[in-house]
Structure prediction request, 285 residues.
Amino acid sequence: MKIGMNLLLWTGHVTEDHVPVLRALKDTGFDGVEVPVFDPSDTSHYAKLGAVLDDIGLQRTAVALIPDEAHSPISPDAAARQGGVDHLTRVIDCCEALGAQALVGPWFQPLGVFSGEGPTGDELERCAGVHRQVAQKARDAGLICALEPLNRFECYLLNTCEQSSSYLERLGEEGFGILYDTFHANIEEKDPLAALRSAYGKGHVNHVHISENDRGTPGRGHAKIRETITELKGLGYDGWLTIEAFGKALPELAAATRVWRDFFASPEEVYSEGYSYIRDCWEQA
Prediction:
């Protein structure tokens, strides 16, 4: 098991200006960080960042998303789907330059875009068509791919583990799995632990976000974090447990995630208490 910290708490574009934060995370005990790859225009930037992280001694995963409808894998417009392929191809190039172990996140549709209905078979198949075009490239880059089902207020294609498992079976590509997030599961799953067990039993869970019910400091809310970690240890999970928390540092992200108020006293509280809480939950499991 490895404990990570999603850097979206501070920024959507990590640079050398964030070295003090990265060193503080290393000193706290974190094994690695989750780097947002939202701007994939310059692979050399991620290569340099990878060297910085190597120097500090932090492993890394990467999180990505679909920027807009012009790059949407579920669009009926072939040009938009090709835009999605092109975007994800660049993201994978950046991940490889970064030295990332995994590419995670909701990179199946643009966030906050709704049809007024649930996902159609055509949308799911169009999305699978895009993912199939980048699957081998991701494998060649040594990336684990983990798609993140989000709550229904952020997207509509994949909201639950069951939906996501069904999509993976449709997709049929090795190396793809589910990012299980305790925040989203707290909203969408009738029984979050049963959903986790079912998806894990199918071999589908390959990344985990530890996120509190208010997206604040882990352990200070009511999301089933301790129970989830206990379940994962019992199942034999040995991957990443990555803290994801959101504040108001990034206005666009704060708007997308509906963060209107402060959920913690400081980022230091989130990562220091969060790390200790995860470690305690794992050791007590």
User: Anything to note?
Assistant: Residues 114 and 156 are 7 Å apart (CA to CA). The longest helix spans residues 78-98. The mean pLDDT is 96. The two ends are 13 Å apart (CA to CA).
